[in-house]
Amino acid sequence: MGAHDLQEFIEKFCPNACLNVDLGHSAWRKQINGRNAFNHIETLYLVIDAESCLHRLYGGSYTDWVCGGQWNQMYHFIKCFCMAAERSNIEFTIFFNGALEKQRITEWTKNQNKLKENIRKIINHTYKRGTPPPKVWFTPPPCITHCIRTAFIACGVQVCQSIKDHHREIIAYCRGNAFHGILGQSGDYVAFDPPRYFSSQLLKLSRYSYCISTVQFQLDVLSKHLSLPAHHFPLLVTLLGNHILRPEEVAAFLMGLVNPTSDDTTTETSINKLVLPEVSKIVPAVADYINKLSTPTDLDSVAKVVFKRCSKNFADKTKRLKESVHYYQSATRNGGRFMESLKEQSTSAVNSNSESHEKEDLVEISSLNTSGSMSSGSEIPTVQENSVLDENCDDVKAIDAIDALALKLENKLLLDKVETPTEEKIIKKFHSKQERTPPSPIEENPIPSNSSMDKSYNEIVTPPLPKLPDKVIDVTLKRHKMSLMHPYVYQTLTQGEIKLDVSLEDDSNQSIPPLAHIFRPIRQHIYGILFSISSIMRTTNQVRPIIIKEWCGARNKTTWTPELVPPLPFDDWQVPALTSLWFGTEAVDKNRRMRAFLSCLHSDTPSMLNPHFVPHHTLVLCCLLRYLIRFPSSCVLHRHEIDAFLATSVSVLLFDPYEEKEAPHLTPRGIELASMFMRGVDMVLFANSACGEPIPAKYAAPWMYFDGRVFQHKLYLSLQEGANLVQLCDGKANHVARVERMRQAILEGCSVPVSVTQSLPPLNMGPRPQMTHFSKVSAHQARFYSPINRPRGPTTMGSWPANKNPRYHNPEVQGRAGSSGSFSIRPLFPAHSSGRGRGTTMSSQ
Questions:
Q1: Half-sphere exposure (Cβ direction) of 20: Cα atoms closer than 13 Å
Q2: Dihedral through CA 101, CA 104, CA 110, CA 112, nearest 10?
Q3: Strand order, beta sheet including 548-551
Q4: Cα 538 to the chain's mean position, in Å?
Q5: pTM recorded for the entire structure
Q6: What is the rounded CA–CA span in Å between residue 448 and residue 105?
Q7: Which listed residue, of 148, 643, 733, 778, carries a Cα 20 to 30 Å from 216's Cα?
């Protein structure tokens, strides 16, 4: 049950409300004197809820998603999609979910449990058949959101990211900028009553005719089918259940509507066994109940009927029922008029809120203009600034502006109703809790998936986050809204919580630790950078306790609970304060940005910044492989698997998206390695954003160095008897040399366990290029190389200039001209510059 039931009802049981349309042609025809005529619109503006159609934007649920993702093919699909939109005179704004949405944690955990069940089926299918699974088990590959976001930015499409409430901000953006419709897939949009509502999951692109087609949900037809006026849709969705009034709390009421003759015992038994009526019966029954109400606006009378079988927390449930109805009404077409009486109260509430980390609640979503560009002003608009409307605006724009203003006023009012305890009380409660329980993952206080979740969730108390400079918050908020920064940065700085989606991993495989634990040290160092732990310790010698909540479904974990993770500083050097790291313009600041990034990945070595050994576009790949090799608790990667990753990065098939690649034989370990790698890429991009973007986006794009299907093919070849590096590189000597150089850079200073080595037959390929700036190969590292791969020529470190640190001075490593990237993204921070040396920022040009 829930709001998604209404969406399912429209798609399956109300076919007349579903109209197949071509967005560039038939969607905007209208009847004039009985004839079809074009509605004269210069450009069609639409907002796409990207979270509801990741599989469509990826390319249509290709079966190769289980291999790790064909990112180059996805990038070319998005390019074709943008070209088709431009040809059809359509302008899209892509909205990604960058909000933590604490109020939807229960809904998120249910979705994650469904994905875990699909993953279990996928693993079993791979064990038995070794073929790609059916499309119905589609599980988004890790980092798919970042890949799609980067591809759209590269194609020049406006991309935004939500801050607090994803669905509400999408409808506010649509109305505030006078857009013509929304592409989404949620019952919430039905209650919001958008100008036009299209299906995002049925979005299709014809590559031959370059036509974009989908299904339009005609809400007026739905209103006639249910005999329910559209302004009662908010109450309809509320009684079906949502994130405010949960489906479990209205289940008894719905059962009574469908089966009026059933007694309380039968109803309770059906609810406990999850035997609920079908959607085709629930939605019409609720609509018929609302129609029979004499005064549907009397929510107190409605609450007495809905909760008559519940004697506990009646007042609280009644309050949340009103909040739920008001949540939808305030975002509807005429909902802004209900908020006029609250303007004075909310204005005083805004003025009383002086905390810098709450400035995101003052952000006006509609501050983006109609064309989608961000206002050039650096200050955040306030309520009073946005309350003045242009006298020359027409009625439609005025109503839309009022709606957007009302939405923000309501959000602010609801926020200020929550009483926040003082900092001293929180710290005192945290220390008293620490005496009873250690700061390890909270297994003894699970978060249930029922109505008592809020109470249990609030009992998990963490120390308050330190106050950050206003400049840091402003820049983070602005970059987050424009989707130019990893969403974890904003969530960590403002709320101290992040959510980690499940990944393709085999719970029964003990050779690879849980992915959430493998990359936790990276995140801990990132938290230390964001909260300037090293700088505070250097100045005050004491740090106030900081704890970050990480929501993740660990292996063999039945309940979803946040794990408490503290930040960690670096042992070998002290990172400067965040303001200096992000906004410093001196050469030393550029060095520190790159060094902080490399230190997070345990890759702070000179060879990583030598483009002769590590090309620009493979820096993320090499740093990630080095981190996995040095993972302390277990042996994560084997020698042939590293060769498969490196051979994939130099393969010619990587840059040919339309090449018909042979379907690889899949293994559970192969798909788990690909999932682990892409999860690591996501964490690397998180570190890149936290350190001030030392690596431009075009060099960090996964399609520059990885393709899941090519990797599975290379991995399969590496497992064959007599396989060698030459076969993995398709017999090309220059590719073999590139792989050897990258591997030597990855293994510099590492002690590789003997158990992961695997010998390859020798091959005479002639002398290798001399390596002048590498330390002597260790004994463990020498075992890792076969005779073909052992370094030749000089292996001693060259002499360094006097009074120069060899780690940060290499006169032979200079900035190199642009790589093979086909696009550029403007620098995120003013301190960026060109050049590639130790610690400098790579050019994005």
A1: 2
A2: 0
A3: 497-499, 548-551, 562-565
A4: 34
A5: 0.77
A6: 11
A7: 148
The torsion angles phi and psi of 159, rounded to 5 degrees, stand at: -125, 135
In whole angstroms, give the CA distance from residue 287 to residue 254.
11
Alpha helices in 500-586 (DSSP H): 515-518, 520-530, 533-540, 578-583
DSSP letter, residue 29: E
Query: What is the C-alpha separation between 511 and 507, in angstroms, rounded?
Result: 10
Dihedral Cα 111, 112, 113, 116, nearest 10 deg: 130
Q: What is the pLDDT of residues 35-72, one digit of tens each?
A: 555 555 578 999 999 999 999 999 876 768 899 998 99
**Alpha-carbon gap, residue 671 to 127, rounded angstroms:** 11
Residue 515 has pLDDT above 80, yes or no: yes
Amino acid letter for position 516: A
Helix axes 395-417, 314-329, angle to 10 degrees: 160
**Cα–Cα distance, 833 to 831 (Å, whole number):** 7
Percent of the residues in the chain that have a pLDDT greater than 70, as a whole number: 67
Backbone angles phi, psi at 649, to 5 degrees: -70, -20
Among residues 645, 602, 599, the alpha carbon closest in space to that of 621 is found at 645
What DSSP character marks residue 447?
B
Confidence category of residue 206, pLDDT binned at 50, 70, 90: confident
- Is the distance from CB of 222 to CB of 247 less than 8 angstroms? no
Q: Which residue in 572, 491, 568 sits closest to 524, CA to CA?
A: 568
Using 50, 70 and 90 to split pLDDT, how confident is the model at 798? very low
Q: 770 pLDDT band (50/70/90 cuts)? A: very low
Quick check: 609 and 695 in contact, CB under 8 A? no
Selection from 85, 576, 606, 163 nearest residue 359 by Cα: 163
Cα of 263 vs its chain's centroid, Å: 45
- Report the half-sphere exposure of 482 (CA within 13 A, side-chain side): 21
Q: DSSP label at 555?
A: T
Q: What are phi and psi of 95, to 5 degrees?
A: -110, 120
Q: Where are the alpha helices (DSSP H) in 14-104?
A: 54-58, 71-87
Phi and psi dihedrals of 478, rounded to 5?
-65, -45
DSSP assignment of 588-624, as one string?
Answer: HHHHHHHHHHHHHTT---GGGG-TTTS-GGGHHHHHH
Angle of CA points 407, 413, 416, to nearest 5°: 140
Over 80: is that where the pLDDT of 601 sits?
yes
Q: Phi and psi dihedrals of 237, rounded to 5?
A: -65, -35
Locate tokens 């088709």: which residue?
84
pLDDT at residue 758, as a whole number: 42
DSSP string over 458-473: HH---PPPPPPPHHHH
Task: State how beta strands 548-551 and 497-499 pair.
Answer: parallel
Q: Per residue, what are the HEC states of 269-286?
A: HHHHCCCCCCHHHHHHHH
Whole-angstrom CA distances from 530 to 489, 495, 540 are 8, 13, 17
* Secondary structure (3-state) at 548: strand
